[in-house]
Specification:
Largest sheet: 9 strands, parallel
Strand order of the largest sheet: 9-8-7-6-5-4-3-10-11
Radius of gyration: 17 Å
Helix content: 40-55%
Strand content: 15-25%
Shape: globular
């Protein structure tokens, strides 16, 4: 796997970054969560568990935000988050309902291209999540716009039902890279511990160039639910570019708290 430089961070360099999602619905909730992340990260750094900033990536889950269809309010909120998290990367994500998104209103769905464009031109984000299954044309078009705006693209795939066969996972990674992904993210659901092990083996194979289609971009592979905890800790040590921890509400099944994750990565 290769590396991707984003601002002053290198993703895929062997040091797993921690990404913490913000999932508030109102401006007040979002800023409260942002403040809580800063406080938790500071306490972890003071304890010597992990060096500051502890959480290198903040994921703004725009699909939770109730005013996401208002460009002015969205931009102003992003500006506050940018100012507050100057030393972190900001990942902008609008997760679809089909892949676990939370906000349910037709207007946002029909305005997705506009919403992503507003985030891109805001100058406040560093990475943009693009769902692979949004369709090849939309994925390529959005990825191209993001790169033209100086952003890195997290091409993503989520499956809340199962862990597909290895050949399918390999094809997904290949498709993501070909469609413009800079970081290739797969999150799947295990039915047993063998599924978790398969995911972690694939992280290793991707890092060592042993896949059917050699991957030149960093990968993030997660086995969700409590059963997949090892993929969030040991998997990160094996080569996942970043992993997810929560402060307050989790954004996906099985996320560890930021403190638990920082300790686990230190001890792994």
């Amino acid at each position: 796997m290769g590396e991707v430089t984003c601002r002053n961070y290198i993703l895929g360099d062997g040091y797993p970054k921690i990404c913490v999602p913000i999932t508030g619905r109102t401006e007040e909730e979002i800023l409260q969560q942002s403040e809580a992340i800063c406080k938790a990260a500071s306490e972890i750094a003071e304890q010597g568990i992990r060096p500051a900033p502890v959480a290198e990536i903040i994921e703004f889950r725009a699909d939770f935000y109730e005013n996401v269809c208002n460009q002015t309010m969205l931009t102003e909120l992003l500006e506050v988050l940018r100012e507050r998290h100057k030393d972190r990367l900001i990942l902008f994500t609008f997760r679809s309902e089909e892949e676990g998104g939370e906000l349910r209103h037709d207007r946002a769905g029909s305005m997705l291209d506009d919403i992503c464009s507003w985030a891109m031109v805001s100058g406040c984000i560093d990475l943009l999540d693009v769902e692979l299954l949004s369709g090849n044309y939309r994925a390529v078009r959005t990825a191209t716009k993001a790169k033209d705006s100086g952003l890195a693209v997290v091409m993503s795939y989520h499956n809340f039902e199962e862990t597909p066969h290895n050949s399918t996972l390999e094809n997904l990674l290949w498709d993501m890279e070909q469609l413009g992904g800079d970081i290739l993210k797969i999150a799947v659901t295990p039915k047993n511990h063998f599924d978790v092990e398969r995911v972690m083996e694939m992280i290793t194979d991707a890092r060592e160039g042993k896949l059917k289609y050699p991957i030149s971009k960093p990968v993030v592979m997660i086995s969700m639910t409590a059963q997949g905890e090892a993929s969030r800790t040991r998997g990160a040590k094996l080569g996942s570019a970043f992993t997810f921890g929560s402060v307050g509400n989790e954004s996906a099944p099985g996320q560890l708290s930021l403190e638990q994750l920082a300790k686990a990565l230190k001890d792994a």
